[in-house]
């Protein structure tokens, strides 16, 4: 799955792809440009929805709060599983909350994602930074929901989930372990991102986008330092800068040869 994003470019860079994008000064003032956003922290993050016929940049919290999560206890228990949505369930599983939200479509701008690889012989998983080649910003599809009104303020919190699909060959080699191994975000081409939030999309057109697989050759990647641990880099480089792990075998080889450990 994908629980780690980067956004260290400018919000204005999105205008290259959405020239009629609407956003308020408050969005740019309060957005924190960071190289790492972790889903289970439910951070506020910029997503693009369609409002009054135009694409609009809004700050939503990562991790959908569905309408049946109607108590703090339910939200705490269930929200962790609402950060990603499997593309296969959006149209074909009518019991899924994602089927109900299929018309609430958003796109998620990012400058890169992080994923972790399991390698036998390493104590911890190895983190990778992955992005679409030659782009400072690209887009992932999502779904969104507004929480029930706050009993005191009446405000509704906008929340979103990120859509994943089965992984291409490259991402299968990186995301090779864990409960949801062999999955990746649904990387979009720019024209698909614009179409995804078009309210007139037919179910057939939605399915066509959901079934799209970005070729491995269009992705670039490198290993980085631990992104979730408490240890900080000692070389003063940004979190998403390349970091070389000693004795790390090439992708496709998921165990360290014994004679390289000593």
Short description:
The chain is α+β, with helices and mostly antiparallel strands. It is built from seven helices and twelve strands.
Your description of this structure?
The chain is of the alpha+beta class. The protein has helices at residues 25-30, 72-78, 87-92, 97-100, 169-174, 190-196, 203-210; strands at 4-7, 34-38, 44-51, 54-62, 84-86, 105-110, 112-117, 126-132, 138-146, 158-166, 183-185, 219-223. The strands form 2 sheets. Strands 3, 4, 5, 6, 9, 10 and 11 form a 7-stranded mixed beta sheet that branches. The chain has a 5-stranded antiparallel beta sheet with strand order 2-1-7-8-12.
Instruction: Report the sheet-strand fraction.
Output: 25-35%
Q: Could you say which structural class the secondary elements and strand pairing correspond to? A: alpha+beta
The number of distinct β-strands equals 12
Overall mean confidence score, pLDDT: 91
Number of H/I helices: 7
Distance between the termini: 34 Å
Shape: globular
Could you list the spans in which at least 5 consecutive residues all have pLDDT below 50?
none
- Largest sheet composition: 7 strands, mixed
Considering the chains and any ligands shown, give keywords for the structure:
262 residues; alpha+beta; 7-stranded mixed sheet; 5-stranded antiparallel sheet; 7 helices; 12 strands; globular
Topology:
Layout: E1 4-7, H1 25-30, E2 34-38, E3 44-51, E4 54-62, H2 72-78, E5 84-86, H3 87-92, H4 97-100, E6 105-110, E7 112-117, E8 126-132, E9 138-146, E10 158-166, H5 169-174, E11 183-185, H6 190-196, H7 203-210, E12 219-223
Parallel strand pairs: 4-10, 5-10
Antiparallel strand pairs: 1-2, 1-7, 3-4, 6-9, 7-8, 8-12, 9-10, 10-11
């Amino acid at each position: 799955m994908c629980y780690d994003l980067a956004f260290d470019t400018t919000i204005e860079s999105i205008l290259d792809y959405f020239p009629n994008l609407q956003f308020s000064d408050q969005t740019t003032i309060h957005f924190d440009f960071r190289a790492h956003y972790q889903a289970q922290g439910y951070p506020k993050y910029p997503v693009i929805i369609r409002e009054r016929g135009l694409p609009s940049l809004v700050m939503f919290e990562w991790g959908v709060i569905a309408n049946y999560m109607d108590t703090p206890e339910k939200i705490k228990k269930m929200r962790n599983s609402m950060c990603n949505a499997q593309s296969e369930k959006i149209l074909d599983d009518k019991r899924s909350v994602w089927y109900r939200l299929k018309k609430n479509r958003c796109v998620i701008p990012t400058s890169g994602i992080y994923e972790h690889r399991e390698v036998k012989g390493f104590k911890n998983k190895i983190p990778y930074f992955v992005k679409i080649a030659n782009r400072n910003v690209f887009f992932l599809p999502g779904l969104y929901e507004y929480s029930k009104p706050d009993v005191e303020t009446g405000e509704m919190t906008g929340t979103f989930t990120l859509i994943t699909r089965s992984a291409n060959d490259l991402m299968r080699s990186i995301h090779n372990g864990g409960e949801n191994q062999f999955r990746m975000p649904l990387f979009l081409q720019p024209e698909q991102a614009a179409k995804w939030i078009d309210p007139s999309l037919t179910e057939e057109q939605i399915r066509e986008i959901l079934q799209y697989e970005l070729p491995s050759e269009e992705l670039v990647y490198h290993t980085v330092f631990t992104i979730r641990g408490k240890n900080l880099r000692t070389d003063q480089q940004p979190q998403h800068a390349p970091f070389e792990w000693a004795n790390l075998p090439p992708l496709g080889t998921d165990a360290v040869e014994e004679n390289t450990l000593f």
